[in-house]
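Ticket reopened. Same input as before:
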Amino acid sequence: MALANVLQSESVDFSNYGRKCRGFSSSLYETELGLESVGGDNLSFAVRTACSDGDGPERKIQFLHGTTTLAFKFQHGVIVAVDSRATAGAYIASQTVKKVIEINPYLLGTMAGGAADCSFWERLLARQCRVYELRNKERISVAAASKLLANMVYQYKGMGLSMGTMVCGWDKTGPGLYYVDSEGNRVCGDLFAVGSGSMYAYGIVDSGLKQKDLTVEEACDLGCRAIYQATYRDAYSGGQVNLYHVHSEGWNRVSQSDVLMLHQQYQNLTDQ
Amino acid sequence: MFVTQVYGDNGKMKEYHYTGPVEHRFSPYSFNGGTVLAVAGEDFAIVASDTRLSEGYSIHSRDSPKCYKLTDTTVIGCSGFHGDCLTLTKIIDARLKMYKHSNNKCMTSGAIAAMLSTILYGRRFFPYYVYNIIGGLDEEGKGAVYSFDPVGSYQRDTYKAGGSASAMLQPLLDNQIGFKNMEGVQHLPLSQEKAVQLVKDVFISAAERDVYTGDALRICIVTKDGIKEETVPLRKD
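Engineering reply: fixed in the latest deploy. New output:
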């Protein structure tokens, strides 16, 4: 299994650690396989017990969950816009999370769902992409990169991973945009918005994309506005809007704007 | 049938019915309380924790600090389930030794943070119930703070509070160190003396309102000259 193999190479004994501890839940079998065999039982014991309400002063373990991200293709490449809020239950754990993961200089991945899941698997994807480059002496295509990611997480389907990511890049066939999630979906498309604030973002981008042939600046403004509107209405989105533009030479970071500043800016525009 | 209404963890009311058998499952986790805090300055880093170890309504120990020294330039604060904190710090120490022997140098703070992320994610399906914050100096000698969630998601911050009173401390730090929600205020860089005083004040406030925080405060100040420790008493009730 991908996870056990990666960690086994680095830590000698520690991969047995979890398996021994899971012993008291799975009554009879002792297996040497990785995580998949104890999947079902393990899930009901470890993850669900951890998340269920304890009695009295016992607390739930709460993981950080990411939220509104969007990406769309246009004439001059792909625009990727994300918010930067991470919540653990109702507590805002951070307002400065980087939800765009720079896989390599021409591929970007976004983060929505479980923060640790997204950052770990996309970091592993970066490693796989580099190995592909070394083996084949050419850059990996966006389709192949997204397929690698989808296949990696499909092995853990049903075990509680939470990841909704978009793999964006530019390869031989032009701009590429794929949506990959932990349920096993892998879809190619021109526009995706993922996360709790996605519906609000779709509204803005759908209306803005109607007139074709956007300039780079117009497209960036559209992405920024969409995320801002999503943060306005969705409680789980907020912080800053991080904007990236992917073009034939690779990606570059366009801007990072605080939502409060954007609010004042748009407010001034409507007042004028 | 006797019904009592109790406020649950998230503020919603729970109802307890004392009728019939109730299934109690063994839980491998327990919550031992404690708060940790780290602040990064220009050329220093501070990691502070309270020293109370509790379980349920009891206090097991008044002298159980949650800061652990990893290298000469890095300190980690771990709060949550004490059993997992101890094991995790043992594993990190072992991995540090292995790295030192293979690479003939000490791990930098950034490297320790990245390694801890993969150690935590290795137990994605049976997590270490620990909220970690690493404080130390980076390769350039500047202060660095890395905060984690229980499964390994991490990022570099300037300041972070974790543990049971984190929700009380973080807004105060946002205001005093991050100058959030203040208009027309000059952003002065944080000096070491001011930072230490702020940490002491912040923990005194936490001890007032959080039952799991109190007894004493252990502060570890990391500078290029080494790690200095200071202990300050807090409320014991």
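The longest helix of chain B spans residues 82-103. Confidence is low (pLDDT under 50) at residues 1-8 of chain B. Please confirm and we'll close it.
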